[in-house]
Amino acid sequence: MKLPPRVRIVEVGPRDGLQNEPREVPTSIKIELIDRLADAGLPVIETTAFVSPRWVPQMADAPAVLTGIRRRPGTTYAALTPNLQGFDGAIAAGADEVAIFAAASEAFSQKNINCSIRESLKRFEPVLASASALEIRVRGYVSCVVGCPYTGAVDPAATAEIAGTLYDMGCYEVSLGDTIGIGTPASVSRMIEACARRVPIDRLAGHYHDTNGMAVANVLASLQLGMACFDASVAGLGGCPYAPGASGNVATEDLVFLLDGLDIETGVDLAELAATGAWISRAIDRPNGARAGRSFRGEPR
Ligand code: HMG
Ligand code: MG
What we know:
8-stranded parallel beta barrel, alpha/beta, single chain, binds 3-hydroxy-3-methylglutaryl-coenzyme A, TIM Barrel, binds magnesium ion, globular, 16% strand, disordered C terminus
């Protein structure tokens, strides 16, 4: 089995993990979470989202979060931006890079960002133009890459088309979101194979929610196809407010445990990461948070 020697992890816990929390999470806790994740060695942290506070109230403190963090040299601090208004806010608050987000399903696009897929791509044009002028890197997300909570299975060709369009528009990487965690190694592999015909595999990332416990299996299937970038959420926190029933991303602890076991380099300190997962689970009163009670000491070598 030939696997990539190194994997880049994009930690999305502070954004994807906390955007769905039923209770308000204090800004100071979000800031401490980001600082701890940076100290644990996560190279890229998606810190927050500059979206409408009416749509996602949990992200209303985005500017305070981004301006409040301690910046660790070498760490990239990213933010989610649905439009130019969000992009301008993210840049003013000091985001190093931004992410735009589209969907492979029309129904999800409408529910999530209140417009069609085509309209969303139009909205991204000025974001990409401003980002290019400021030399800010833009990452693209595609949601519902294998299935949609409203309309069911999604054709790999539809996902590949949106992924290819985002890449052609200037996204340096396209993250493939199994928003509702419905994918299995079979469907995820078919989807990646279709996308890799439009976008080089080293420009694709996996963003797998763990609703059905398939996320780690899907990561392994993706590694086998040469994918070397994965999004993950500490303690498996999260879900999407516009994807009913969806649970969090693959837990970063599980991802690092898998990659350590495969001798794939990540730069992440698993003990420090696990301590952070236990801490955030307590801090937001999720004593049974996905990974709170486990030690992650690693396999004997
Ligand atoms: P809209 O209502 O159609 O927007 O929402 P609008 O342009 O008509 O503006 C309406 C109001 O929103 C105006 O304010 C704007 O100023 C304000 P008003 O004049 O009424 O007071 N507004 C904003 N405020 C702050 N920041 C902004 C912004 N834009 C407009 N950037 C919009 C359209 C896209 C804004 C809205 O639908 C929205 O914010 N959606 C975000 C939904 C979201 O964050 N979902 C979760 C993240 S995506 C996800 O989790 C999936 C992912 O993880 C991958 C996966 O798992 O699949 C990435
Ligand atoms: Mg997500």
